Amino acid sequence: MSEKSPSVITPELRLKAEKLYLEKTPVAHATLNLQDSKALLRDLQIKIFEMELEKEKILGEQLKLDASYQKYFSLYLLAPMSFFIVSENGVILECNLSASKLLGFSQSELINKQIIDLIHPSDHEIYYCQKEKYFDENILKQCELRVLKNNGSELWVKLEPLVVVDILGNP
To answer: Are the beta carbons of 96 and 78 closer than 8 angstroms?
Structure first.
């Protein structure tokens, strides 16, 4: 157990805990004998140690999550290739810095935008066919199409779809 970890108990939290104690603890505690009081104190001290151990475990998991985020940040957000995460409805959920720079938009301008709005109107059919092929036949094929940059110019890109699933296996 770490003795140096700072307490996160604020005076407001302490008052709230005391109020809950008074509301939920039976009045019978006033009639406890010395042996029962010692047993309760022992149980309380054990519970405190359990909570400290759990806190250390949670902090360790937080460090792992932070390290995982740093890998994600480096591999996805800073990748030299452009990446978009697009919902089934065609809404851009995420994009990396390369994508926003390539198209001349900020990331926040791209998030929640329909991907079709970035595709040249003459190439909408290509996009819709690709999307339909995946949802009807579960076939992912790469294609080339034109996208529109923020300044209005067009740019040929290779679209390489990849389905990413969540922890429950949903796309």
So the answer is: yes
Q: What is the pTM assigned to this prediction?
A: 0.62
pLDDT per position as a tens digit, 52-85: 999 999 999 999 999 998 988 888 888 999 999 9
**Secondary structure E strands in 113-159:** 143-148, 154-159
Q: Which amino acid is at 114?
A: Q
Phi, psi of 23 (to 5 degrees): -75, -35
Long-range pairs, 120-128, Cβ under 8 A, ≥24: 120/145, 120/146, 120/147, 120/148, 120/154, 122/146, 127/159
- C-alpha 124/C-alpha 130 separation (Å) is 10
> Distance between CA atoms of 101 and 89, rounded to whole angstroms?
24
Amino acid identity of residue 145, one-letter, is L
Q: How far apart are CA 10 and CA 5, in angstroms?
A: 14
Distance of alpha carbon 114 from alpha carbon 121, whole angstroms:
13
